[in-house]
# Entry
Amino acid sequence: DVKVTQSSRYLVKRTGEKVFLECVQDMDHENMFWYRQDPGLGLRLIYFSYDVKMKEKGDIPEGYSVSREKKERFSLILESASTNQTSMYLCASSLWGGPYEQYFGPGTRLTVT
Amino acid sequence: TQLLEQSPQFLSIQEGENLTVYCNSSSVFSSLQWYRQEPGEGPVLLVTVVTGGEVKKLKRLTFQFGDARKDSSLHITAAQPGDTGLYLCAGGRMDSNYQLIWGAGTKLIIKP
# Structure
């Protein structure tokens, strides 16, 4: 069974804190993604990575950075958390090339107070 | 900018009724996927359609990809409470090997 795991299901942080969200996949997928999901806005891509140490900005990268030191692991970093970053964060992975099927982790519900 | 419009945004029906959810765009996609997401969980892939006009069936769910590969529909026959969830469509970008364009989702509630 394919599996994507995320380090926390729920997280509460204070404004200004540095936040690390970690994602691990066991499918040997080349591509990994970080999305945030907010009601009525659907899934919005923050960053993606197509190889170790390679990363590209998605649609909403501001306030976030990422790290991919190993193929199976993709981390999302909130350098200085703000209340508008309260959201559901979803990690996904996929094989390089079509047909683009993405496999998701269970998500991390982050609340910034 | 490629967009994928999903309709309706919300649908609440009685058990046993039929329903159709639509996903439309002015852009051509290399493939189209449907996902289902339950509250507090990540989306789970239901199906991928690749060829224009393709129809796939998954028990009571029928998925169709438009002939021009710009739109798709999901039809559920005799809906069950277990079908409740958020249904998301996603199209494969023609200019990318990995990025998807996401619809905003259809929240479906099936009442017993």
